[in-house]
UniProtKB/TrEMBL annotation:
Its cofactor is Zn(2+); Fe cation. Belongs to the metallophosphoesterase superfamily. Purple acid phosphatase family. It comes from the Eukaryota. CDD domains: MPP_PAPs (cd00839). Keywords: Glycoprotein, Hydrolase, Signal, Zinc. It catalyses: a phosphate monoester + H2O = an alcohol + phosphate. This is Purple acid phosphatase. Residues 142-336 form the Calcineurin-like phosphoesterase domain. It is an enzyme of class 3 (hydrolase). PANTHER family: ACID PHOSPHATASE RELATED, PURPLE ACID PHOSPHATASE. The keyword Nucleotide-binding does not apply.
Length: 425
C-alpha cells in the first residue's frame, strides 16, 4: 500500500509543482546595490552622465556633467560619425547640498533635427568618446519603454539591459530615479549607470518621493538635485515648474505630473493641467497618456492610504476622465499591476487604463503582498522586476506588454491591445 502511495505521490509531484508555478511566480530575493561607479576611476576631464530629452517636436536637450570646471557648454553634432558640421551653445549650472558640491551641469538644446535620424555628437570639452542618438519617427509606429523606481542594483542593470534590447524610441520614467536619498555622489553614479541608454534615446522623466531630498535645517529646499540634473522641457508647455509638463511626439500628447508638489483644485499644477488638457487637439494627437509617481489605483498592500495618491486622485480624476485619457502610468509600488478602464473605483469604458510599473529594480526590493480578494477592476498583478513597452501602432491601436526579468532574459508576462477610442458613454 505504502509503496503505491509513494509512487502516486512521486508521479503527481511534478504536476502539482507545475500548477503551483503557473499560478504564482516566485521571485528570487532583491540583490544588493552595486554603486559601480564609486569604485570606478573616472577621467575628471571627460563629459559624463550624458542624457538627452526632447524639446518641442524637432529639438533635443543634451545634458552632461563635468568634474573639472571651465569647459564650454557646447555640443557639436552631425549625421555621420566623426563629422560635426553643427554646433550649439547652452547653459551651465551647479548646486550645493550640505557639504557636497556638484560638478558643472551643462544643458544644450540642439536642432532643428530630422525625424528618425541618427545624430553623432560630442560634448565640451570634446575630449569625450562620441555619442549618438536616434530621433523619434515622423509618424506611427512609435515605441516607448516605461519603467519607474529604477535605483542602481543588479536588478536595475538587468532591467536596463532588457530595455536596451527593445528597440524603443522614447523612455518614459514615472519617478524615483537614483535612490540617492541625500547621498549626492549616488546621483553621479546613477547618471553613469544609465548613460549608455540615456545618451542614446530621449529619457522623459517625472519625479518621485526619492527626489524630494529635503532635510529640516540642513537643506530646506526640495528637488535641488533632481531639478539641476534632470531639466525637462516644462516652459514649452506653459508650465512654470520642472515638476510637471507635457510634450507631444508623433500622435501622442504625454502629460507628466508631480505627486510631491501642490495638486489640489486651484493650485498652480491643477490650473496648468486644466489649460493643457483644453489645448489638446485629438485629431493631431489621438493618444493621451499621463505619467505620475504615486498610483491612484493600487491593490498592493504597499503605499495604501497615502495623501499623494488619494488626494491627487480626488483632485484630478475628473479632469482626466473628461479629457478621455487613454492610460495613466505610475510607479512608487515596487511591482506590476494593470487595471481595466476605471472611473471613481468602477469599471468604465470612458476612463483611463491604470498601470503601475514601479518594478525597475531598486534596493528596497519588491512589494509582494496584495489585497485579498483581488478587486474586479484589477486585471493583472505581480511582484517581479521588469519593464513595460508601449508600441503605438497607429491612431487607433497600441500594444502594451509587460516584460518580467527572468534572470538574464526578458519574458513577456502580460500583453494587451489597447484601442482608441473605446469609449461609448
Ligand atoms: C491599426 O492597427 C491595427 C493593428 O495592427 C489594424 O488592425 C488596423 O487596421 C490599423 N488601422 C489602420 C487605420 O490602419
Ligand atoms: Fe516612490
Amino acid at each position: 500500500m505504502a509503496y503505491i502511495k509513494v509512487h502516486v505521490l512521486l508521479f503527481l509531484l511534478p504536476i502539482i509543482l507545475a500548477i503551483e508555478s503557473s499560478l504564482s511566480y516566485e521571485r528570487p530575493p532583491p540583490r544588493k546595490s552595486i554603486f559601480l561607479s564609486l569604485s570606478q576611476d573616472l577621467d575628471s576631464s571627460s563629459p559624463q552622465q550624458v542624457h538627452i530629452s526632447m524639446v518641442g517636436e524637432d529639438k533635443m536637450r543634451i545634458s552632461w556633467i563635468m568634474e573639472d570646471s571651465g569647459s564650454p557648454a557646447t555640443v557639436k553634432y552631425g549625421t555621420s560619425p566623426g563629422s560635426y558640421p553643427f554646433s550649439a551653445n547652452g547653459d551651465t549650472t551647479k548646486y550645493r547640498y550640505i557639504l557636497y558640491k556638484s560638478g558643472e551641469i551643462h544643458n544644450v538644446v540642439i536642432g532643428p533635427l530630422k525625424p528618425n535620424t541618427v545624430y553623432y555628437y560630442i560634448c565640451g570639452p570634446f575630449t569625450s568618446p562620441e555619442f549618438n542618438f536616434k530621433t523619434p519617427p515622423a509618424g506611427f509606429p512609435i515605441k516607448f519603454a516605461v519603467v519607474g523606481d529604477l535605483g542602481q542594483t543588479d536588478w536595475t542593470t538587468s532591467t536596463l539591459d532588457h530595455i536596451s534590447k527593445s528597440n524603443y524610441d522614447v523612455m518614459l520614467l514615472p519617478g524615483d530615479l537614483s535612490y540617492a536619498d541625500t547621498m549626492q555622489p549616488l546621483w553621479d553614479s546613477f547618471g553613469r549607470l544609465v548613460e549608455p541608454l540615456s545618451s542614446h534615446r530621449p529619457w522623459m522623466v517625472t519625479q518621485g518621493n526619492h527626489e524630494v531630498e529635503k532635510i529640516p535645517i540642513l537643506h530646506s529646499q526640495s528637488f535641488t538635485s533632481y531639478n539641476a540634473r534632470w531639466l525637462m522641457p516644462f516652459e514649452q508647455s506653459g508650465s512654470t515648474s520642472n515638476l510637471y509638463y507635457s510634450f507631444e511626439v508623433v500622435g501622442l500628447h504625454i502629460i507628466m505630473l508631480g505627486s510631491y508638489t501642490d495638486f489640489g483644485p486651484g493650485s498652480a499644477q491643477y490650473n496648468w493641467l486644466k489649460n493643457d488638457l483644453n489645448k489638446i487637439d485629438r485629431k493631431k494627437t489621438p493618444w493621451l497618456i499621463v505619467i505620475v509617481h504615486a498610483p491612484w489605483y493600487n491593490s498592493n498592500t504597499a503605499h495604501q492610504g497615502e495623501y499623494e495618491s488619494y488626494g491627487m486622485k480626488s483632485s484630478m480624476e475628473d479632469l482626466l476622465f473628461k479629457a478621455r485619457v487613454d492610460i495613466v502610468f505610475a510607479g512608487h509600488v515596487h511591482a506590476y499591476e494593470r487595471f481595466t478602464r476605471v472611473y471613481k473605483d468602477k469599471a468604465n469604458n470612458c476612463g483611463p487604463i491604470y498601470i503601475t510599473i514601479g518594478d525597475g529594480g531598486n534596493r528596497e526590493g519588491l512589494a509582494s503582498k496584495y489585497q485579498d480578494p483581488k478587486p474586479d477592476i484589477s486585471i493583472f498583478r505581480e511582484a517581479s522586476f521588469g519593464h513595460g513597452e508601449l508600441d503605438v501602432v497607429n491612431a487607433t491601436h497600441a500594444q502594451w506588454s509587460w516584460h518580467r526579468n527572468d534572470d538574464d532574459e526578458a519574458v513577456v508576462a502580460d500583453t494587451i491591445w489597447i484601442t482608441n477610442p473605446s469609449c461609448t458613454l
